[in-house]
Prior knowledge:
The chain is 35% helix and 24% strand.
Amino acid sequence: MHWQERPRAVEVSFHKATSSTRWGGADRFHANKTIEWRMSGVGPSRQILRRLGRIVATDFAESFKYIDAKITLFQYDGIDYFSRPGVQPHILDILERAREAAMKFTRRHVLRLGAASPVAVRSAWASDYPTRPVRVVVGFPPGGFTDTSTRLIAAALSERLGQQFVVENRPGASSNIATEFVVRAAPDGYTLLQIGDGNAYNATLYDNLNFDFIRDIAPVASTVNAPFVLVVNPSFGAKTVPEFIKYAKANPGKINVGSLGPGSPSQLIGVLFKSMVGIDLVTVNYRGIGPALTDLMNGRIEVVFTSLVSVIGYIKADKLRALGVTTARRVDLLPDVPALGEFVPGYEAAGWVGLGAPAKTPPEIIATLNAQVNTALADPAFKARLVEIALEPFPSSQTDFAKFIVEFTDKWQKVIRAANIKPE
């Protein structure tokens, strides 16, 4: 197969599983000098970086299942790719589209890599991260606290790391569309995922996912906690959490609680509370928090469990009464409102947001991102901005965050299965 193209500057990478495929042939490029690049067998060739110019190969991934290669700003006037078994002619299309450029190395780095091991290649690659914009995929529409908090941390990372972290909204299927998109992305640190409590719920709620969240997404950094709050109409008789529990037990099946649908955080957080105190509330499902709050303020329902960020304005304006927050301790924004756990020992439930990456993303890149996120969360001005929008900083190490996600997922798996909750 022969392909002619007028010389031009391009930036390109390609990503191909080679666990059982034998690659052959040679691509001939023209940069400062002619470079021959050959790959053969199922593992990475030690000859890839025999000569330099401006051609760079990077990231021999774990177990050699992936080869990501990058040709940076080269000029070419022809590519010879031999049509025979094992050769992938569609590589030409990938070159043409110049999509998903991988890491850019300096000449000094590449010289070191000529005879380097895969581990050394990965370490050197990660040391320069990032060298181009990073995409941060959010599984919800713009405007919610998950999107807002992710945009805040993306801006902080852009400032600290010198490359743009661009938020891309891919809503749908309770964030499962976005998650699967990132699961299938190259594990190079240039596609990240906004992760949160919804991912943990989905792991139990959905039986037919094409991915395993715990296995396929590497936790990078926790960013914020999102307190939820139990709110009632100001005219409701109960003024405190003990009074509410007492009234609910005396009136089983007579209190209506608004929910955003089966499997939503508002429902699950309420289900946990009901099960721990032994009360019977009637669930009324809504398609958005706006209609639920309207009915609550108009007296059509009596109670809602919802994120503090969605009702803080109504609470401050005395249009709703906050009986208790769902976090383990009181929140700074409402210091006089008790935590529900003060009356229901062991009760704790809240939303949270963080960043994840495709599994097998180099640990050096994850460590860089985790450190920079935690630095941002420690900044007083950044913390103050979060408090203004009813969120709390959630710093942690990558190891602790990974442990938290596993424990959180297990906890809510029990709640969901005990209540036999199914998504709509």
